[in-house]
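Margin note from the TA: students keep mixing up input and output lines. Inputs are the sequences; the output is the structure of the whole complex. Example:
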Amino acid sequence: MRPAENGWWQIEHDSIFPGVDYAFFLDDAGPFPDPRSQFQPHGVHGPSRVVDHRSFRWTTERWQPPPLSSAVVYELHVGAFTREGTFLSAIERLDHLKVLGITHVELMPVQEFSGKWGWGYDGVDLYAPHHAYGSPDDLKRFVDAAHTRDLAVLLDVVYNHLGPAGNYLDRFAPYFMKRYSTPWGPAINLDDAGSCEVRRFLCDNAIMWMRDYRFDGLRIDAIHAIHDSSAIHFLAQLSREVDELEAHLGRSLVLIAESDLNDPRVVTPRPAGGLGIDAQWSDDFHHALHSVLTGERSGYFADFGSLAQLAKALTNAYVYDGRFSAYRRAIHGAKPRNLDGWRFLGYLQNHDQIGNRPAGERASQLMSLGRLKIGVALLFCSPFIPMLFQGEEFMASSPFPYFTQHEDPDLARAVSEGRRREFASFEWNPESIPDPQDPMTFRRAKLDWTEPDREPHQSILAFYKRLIDLRRTFPELTDGSFDRVDVRFDERQEWIILRRGRIAVLANLSDAAQKLRVPLRSTPLISSESEFPVPSGEFVMAPDSLLIVQSPVELFAPRDTLTP
Amino acid sequence: MRPAENGWWQIEHDSIFPGVDYAFFLDDAGPFPDPRSQFQPHGVHGPSRVVDHRSFRWTTERWQPPPLSSAVVYELHVGAFTREGTFLSAIERLDHLKVLGITHVELMPVQEFSGKWGWGYDGVDLYAPHHAYGSPDDLKRFVDAAHTRDLAVLLDVVYNHLGPAGNYLDRFAPYFMKRYSTPWGPAINLDDAGSCEVRRFLCDNAIMWMRDYRFDGLRIDAIHAIHDSSAIHFLAQLSREVDELEAHLGRSLVLIAESDLNDPRVVTPRPAGGLGIDAQWSDDFHHALHSVLTGERSGYFADFGSLAQLAKALTNAYVYDGRFSAYRRAIHGAKPRNLDGWRFLGYLQNHDQIGNRPAGERASQLMSLGRLKIGVALLFCSPFIPMLFQGEEFMASSPFPYFTQHEDPDLARAVSEGRRREFASFEWNPESIPDPQDPMTFRRAKLDWTEPDREPHQSILAFYKRLIDLRRTFPELTDGSFDRVDVRFDERQEWIILRRGRIAVLANLSDAAQKLRVPLRSTPLISSESEFPVPSGEFVMAPDSLLIVQSPVELFAPRDTLTP
């Protein structure tokens, strides 16, 4: 190969055409896969395959995704979503999602990683769909099948680190830097010597997924671990390039960040000094909701637990907006200003909140059915973009523990032992913590698709569907304005009432029945109980119960009509 | 001592009053000086002394500093400014600065550091004036004496690292963090567990200097090495607290940053998403000017050298505003928008640009007198706040090399050897590089105050004074608007013309005489040559010569009247 500009090397060769496998020798070392490999049919250590993105026959043309502001997102893991764990088998369940009312499907990372299965956050060939899930064309078939059902598809991308196995990038160029570190390894070089082409590597990667695979947007993993002191932050560059791609392709594209910074700048438009990311995950809302519903106070839940914090999350997104966090032992966050509710994704569950528990328990295993329904109702009536984790909608019995299939025995042992050590401080029997390397750990995470047709799953599925329908029926639920979110609560009596436009969500979290006042002439819409109340001034709510009513008028002006 | 809130310990004791020395034992280790020691009369390892800030008798009341937008700053090193090297002896030279036309005196760091002399950037007792310079009251006398002459005083503060000797802070609390690093040691903990009180330590420090010592502002060293991922950046917190202090004290306070980021956010007001720092040093202008005048292209000067870059610096502050830097091998900077010229300090020399050269040579040793005058003229007619380094105004013969007086023999040896190693790659004879630990290195840096009264120094001093007078006389030179800065140049013919309002600066940088067109009916004001031109349409300029003329009209509208 001959050196070209900016550190690139090039060669032209007759034998390189779609379907051919190739690899690189660097001086005397190698062979190594191409850093921009489009497909690794034999895994992270094998050769790369040439892929022609122009040959796929798309069935949808002039596709436009539904707007993000009224989205309902569904996070899924290709390997555990179906028994087969492939892109093609996932297509069979898209109708289920469509009927449920989902608008955006979000795939957990599918970039080639070490082993046949794993969560995907240890990807090393960022341009290649994981070979165990299917071929590049299979992934396109999945996206195309979703689009034919008017479902948008988002992809989770990891731009803060690379996985520990199969990462040959540093042999090619200065992809990493030592000045900063991440919990998972060296930080990616975004501002030091040679960073230009590293930034291009990531931006071109984002562009490829949206242009060649027609993803409608990306979910960017853990941006708090993306270290960049440049005057133009990598994410600002990325959001600008995605804007340009959007204009070029003529269809809407979105960027969603996972951010632990509580920094409103992330989702502030670039002209206003922000990074221009469209929306971010809202852990504060999750933590506030989860801790109220479960009473859990360990780890980061120590910072939460009051109804006041849940109310603040519902009206302000960040609970920690410049306040001292006892868990972090530091001031955390800043006040969001002029940001709409749809700048934040809300969720009762996601892969991390389930999977980072020792046994990967879902919310349904941690609280009463009544409380689960309260959580779901507050989620779908919140100002945020609601997001579900696969199977949540039918109260799937499968857990979602951490699973890996590393082939390197040292790494495999380190992962197994590390997992046990991580939870040693909790009151957990190490034997009851699933071994990530045990194939059964992965197998148990797979959804059982007979459940949606059986009780009690069927009723829960109907409950989720009713709430999604409610969100679609009442525009005040998706108007995005925090100013029009009204929350009342009584910390001691343990009730909370959320009002948005004509809708009021009443929840009794006490273990005793209590009377809550219902708006005059209101119509009961959804209840956690089998018996619906007679619409009147007051209603006795059972312990852990929920009631959603529709008032004939907006519930805002007289701010005290609803207090009990 | 008894534990109090937020990690503090406290004690009340009858024997603690102003003038008493004390130190702390931590468990069985110690004694250690107080992290907030107000004075270290016996150096960095000795006890701390109690100081009463209320007892000093200030002679100035209702003091208001001159506005920053029309400032002329003078950077000085207390130890080398006078033979005695003290706060009190520096007072004797304030009249010289006042007569020259200086408005703001900026002291290089005076916080207690290891040894009797040193540059000051390795301070470890950030609340204590260096004992070799005098007492806290002596420093107040200096500030008071400046104020009586209507001179503002700024202080250089180092908030990115602490020096290697006498730093006991990490024994008291988590002042440092490992996630980030700086070239000079561990980064200060501004966003991790325990960072609240570390941020208070620095903010309270800034407040102390401005409140108790009546400094008019601070110059914050190397903010690019201040690592903070918090949503409220430490510098935004600091600028907000300084705004509050300003309101409380009823006098104007300023913050000036040394920044290598070329990030306009630094000097953008907080409501517009910035950090709210008033102004920043502009290395791009220095490098562009210095490389054009000297022809130097080594190190970071490799990125500069063209008149086009000098013109861009004069009209845009940043030469690298999102462009690729060959020296950094990375994209650098972002475009400044809506920022006035006075947001940037311009300089032909400063302590770093002199002292970071192997032998500490001043600009006057590196270029012809004609070029020096061109540089000075462009500086004072630039849209920036001009800054001089001590002695520059009279072409001091004393160099300003790096000097230290570390007492620890290992550290002393490391500093001496490190300095030789640092310049080993340059074509320098290691023997000719001054040893920082040699007392003569420091002694040679001291200004010779007989020079201003002798030639050739006297004439240069008069030249600087004429330019400062010019800047004060013509308001267009301090109007701050980049839109009204007009620069023409010819890269091959090596001339440059800077026009601002009625003023035109013409410079011939070629080694041949050449004709440059002078505005019609203009009056020659300042020339590098002994003979003044007859005001006419064209003028033959000698090699390395300068001419400043005043036109009877604004020189902007007909944009081509000036081209030769």
